[in-house]
Amino acid sequence: MFLLLSLCMCGLLLQGHAQDRAALWRGNDRSGRCQYTFTVPSPVEASCPQTGGPEVEGLKARLSLLEVLVSRLTGGDTGGPQGAGARAAARPGLQEALDRATGERNLLRGEKERLEQELQGLQRRMEETRRETERLRSRPCPPQTPMVPPSPPLQDSGLTRPAEGSNPMSHLMTRPSRQGDSSSLRDSAWEYGHPGFQELKAEVTEVPAPRGSEDNTGCGELVSVAEPVTHRKADNIAGKYGVWMQDPEAVSPYGPEMVWRIDTIGSDVRQLFGYDDMEQLSKGFPSKVLMLPELVESTGATLYRGSLYYQRRRSRSLIRFDLASESTAARRDLPHAGFHGQFPYSWGGYTDIDLSVDEQGLWAVYSTSKAKGAIVISQLDPHSLDVKRSWETNIRKNSVANTFIICGKLYTVASYTAPDTIINYVYDTETSQGKAMAVPFRNKYRYNSMIDYNLAQRKLFAWDNFHMVSYDLRLGRQQAN
User: Fold this and answer.
1) Do residues 352 and 339 lie in contact, with contact meaning Cβ atoms separated by under 8 Å?
2) Which of 7, 126, 249, 264 has the greatest CB tally within 10 Å of its CB?
3) ∠ CA(375), CA(376), CA(380), 5° rounding?
4) Bridge partner list, 24
5) What is the pTM of this model?
6) d(CA 362, CA 385)
């Protein structure tokens, strides 16, 4: 009994001592439930070993950073309302910048592709020129004889013809026979010879001036071309090459003063800009912008009787686009015509098919494999685009910089970069004969990619290295047959 009492007293003493050093806590946990915590000091260890330190603190910091990143990736509002608003406001600007950069990249890719094609074409033509030069050097020069007998001295003026043998250039002065002898009108230089020889020969050829009176209302041979007048410069790289024009027989709703323009650099050329008149063109304020149904190839488009005529990209298809209804009115393949760099002008630019309009209607200038690169002229039906008649010339298309047609006569320009060049050949579709000539022509900005006759104003329109220019011209009177 005494032992039991002793044990009870010891238990009570230990209990009281433990109560002095024990602690009891009560509180809610993270889920809101009530939780009791009982803490008793260790009877052996004076202090607990370290459980924190730099490693734990670094781990806590990394965990906090990870929580922030996860919250942002899952659309959380860690950045606060101001950060979210800033990001929302920045998205349209970033998208616009991305779209602009993508467009510029596509434009540069198209320009790169075009330049690579032109480089290949130039390399091919240089090789052809080299072979032609070697062939010409290997054959003897034929004896030069005058094509026509010397004319009698001029009686009505103070000028007299040099005596025989006094001028070594006298044999280069030729005049076509009035009897229609094709041998006297055909320039043998067009049969063979590289472009440099043709341009040099044209530069030293003297053509007697017409004896009759001259003005700009007739339909005779071209006499002179005035200095270019600049109307506008293109705004960006897409306008380095282009075509601009007026409709000589305008149809409602557009009047004869309306000016149209196409910038032809890029992989998506289909915009047609319309200006009310020349003044609005010079100011750069278009009143109409039409989206063409098919992509445009190069600078050979033209306007006639309310329709735009142009070549579909990478094909020989011609398209007539009606301006009033803004729809395709006709489509036709130009039979056997080369396209996309097969038979371009000397400056390249996929100028295989060149359309133009004059007093006699709609024309196409191109070449075929059968013609072996020589210029073919075809008169087209403006409604159906059918070929009405064709002429095959002896002029190598890649040896001339450009051509234009006036009164049924095809004129060729010798150079597209030389500031002072010449119109060096004319071919008359009425007589099916051609001859060399030397009418001065100026490339003011030294890269003329488009030259067309504007029947409405009886001028030449041209696109010279970003610049839209025009030339006054003079024609001789029509010779009576």
Assistant:
1) yes
2) 264
3) 140
4) 38
5) 0.59
6) 9
